[in-house]
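The instructor's notes for this session suggest beginning with a concrete chain rather than abstract definitions. Hand out the sequence below and ask the class to guess, before any prediction is shown, which regions might be ordered.
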Amino acid sequence: MKLPVLPTVIVGLAVAAMIALGVWQLDRRGQKEAALARYAGNSAPPVMAFPNPPVGDEHLFRRASAMCLQVVGWTEQAGRAEDGTKGWRHIAQCRTGIEALTIPIDMGVSTAPGATPLWQGGDVTGTITHAPDSTPLLASLLRKRGPRPLMLVAQTPAPGLSESARPDPASVPNNHLAYAVQWFLFAAIALVIYLLALRWRQRRMDGSQDQAS
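After discussion, reveal the predicted structure:
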């Protein structure tokens, strides 16, 4: 059976790309496992100063302290308290005195939206996690992402708020094996469909030849 050149090339390239994506996901799985092991160990070291600049995944889940000299603004997002109660977490944008640097600090959860905490600043100790990211999903896929900014989740909430859920390494997903299996399955399905299409095409050609003879 003579294979059609262009369709075979297109399907071959697509299958090769899917297999390459599956292999890449397997590599990412190993990287994520190493990162998770590092995150699990980050709770053991003593309290560190909140990093400056506040970026870098190597600091995730470390306990840290910071001095908030002045709250220059608040943002509010859906969140969960340490006791499991759902609500709205209140993130203070804190001036630290290091040039114009401000850092986000999650000061706790309220059960009703719109509340403005009375807290104006002070010493804060808590756990480091990623700061909320407002980058649209499409934009994050199209551009290379740099180190994500960090946030401190306070262990002592502001007056009137409940302690926010503490960042936990167990919440970090490692789905790369499942993604790899999906890409390999897509490659296999594409190949099977193409082989069936070739078989159907050959039967049509054979039928046409039989009618002609």
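Then share the key points. Residues 137-141 have pLDDT under 50 and may be disordered. Residues 121 and 176 are 41 Å apart (CA to CA).
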